[in-house]
Design goal:
Family: Belongs to the SAM hydrolase / SAM-dependent halogenase family.
Pfam families: SAM_HAT_C, SAM_HAT_N
Oligomer: single chain
Helix content: 25-40%
Radius of gyration: 20 Å
Strand content: 25-35%
Largest sheet: 8 strands, antiparallel
Keywords: S-adenosyl-L-methionine
Organism: Segetibacter aerophilus
Protein name: SAM-dependent chlorinase/fluorinase
Distance between the termini: 54 Å
CATH architecture of the largest domain: 3-Layer(aba) Sandwich
């Protein structure tokens, strides 16, 4: 039984997710397809990378991960198939691959799209399905695609630091309106170096303790802890942190807009002061 994960920004309002699964089952009925998410924010590379790197870590060797996010940032000519940490990742050549694995993949090949065909979502995913069939048949990556390639590379969204501060961006707001920030426990421990700290957001909201769970503070109180993926999370015990404080997820589009929108930046960032 082969495991396939599917992560997209397609949503589930139409037929596309079902059609993609149909393409995969047409390759082999002996598959287990796991939906990671189909509700990722459009054009949000940092959020997609956070979802994928957090989820993929838990799957067994040989899992085949398909990531369909921002497929048409540019007119696609090829899809990518990578092998990294004993797992396969198939996605568009748009920089997301290097964000997911935080660097260059161990091996990667290009899967050219058919000449003369319109590059629709299902054209792209059929190319991935064909590559899956060859993987299941025991074919090597170099047989399946072109290895002498240059791929688009993007870096993960990184926090900004100074000798006395860290400034992170809000990667994701979950279903409970808890806020996940792009600062890991390893980042925090390294920058803190044993010093006292205070976490500040929305200019004047302060937390000066890292807790273990939501329940470490009274109901209705704000709390900070590192979640199961190791990222800083800000929440309210049995409340909605993002809604109450007006916090927003990071947006690359917003970052590129005019300085007149600079005030909105305060609602997308979290700052940590050390002393």
């Amino acid at each position: 039984m082969s495991i396939i994960t599917l992560t997209t920004d397609i949503g589930q309002q139409d037929y596309l997710v079902a059609a993609v699964k149909g393409q995969l089952y047409s390759v082999s009925e002996n598959l287990t397809i796991v939906d990671v998410s189909h509700q990722l924010s459009s054009f949000n590379y940092p959020q997609a990378a956070y979802f994928c790197c957090s989820a993929f870590h838990y799957f067994p060797s040989g899992t085949f991960h398909i990531v369909l996010v921002n497929m048409f940032d540019q007119k696609p000519k090829q899809m990518l198939l990578a092998y990294h940490n004993k797992q396969y990742i198939a996605c568009a050549d748009n920089g997301l691959l290097t964000m997911i694995i935080d660097g260059a993949p161990e091996r990667v090949v290009a899967l050219p799209l058919p000449e003369g065909e319109r590059p629709t979502t299902l054209t792209c995913t059929q190319v991935i399905a064909n590559a899956l069939w060859q993987i299941l048949a025991g074919k090597d990556l170099d047989y399946i695609g072109e290895s002498d390639i240059t791929i688009v590379e993007k870096l993960r969204l990184k926090y900004v630091n100074s000798p006395t501060t860290m400034e992170g961006q809000i990667l994701y707001i979950d279903n409970f309106e808890n806020v996940i920030v792009n600062i890991t426990k390893a980042d925090f421990d390294r920058e803190r170096n044993g010093r006292n700290f205070k976490i500040v957001f929305k200019r004047d909201e302060v937390i000066d303790t890292i807790s273990e769970t939501y329940a470490c503070v009274p109901q209705g109180e704000k709390v900070a802890f590192f979640n199961s993926s190791g990222y800083l999370e800000i929440a309210i015990n049995k409340g909605n942190a993002a809604g109450l404080f007006g916090l927003q997820g990071f947006s690359e589009a917003m970052q590129k807009q005019s300085i007149s929108l600079q005030n909105k930046w305060f609602y997308q960032t979290v700052k940590i002061f050390f002393e």
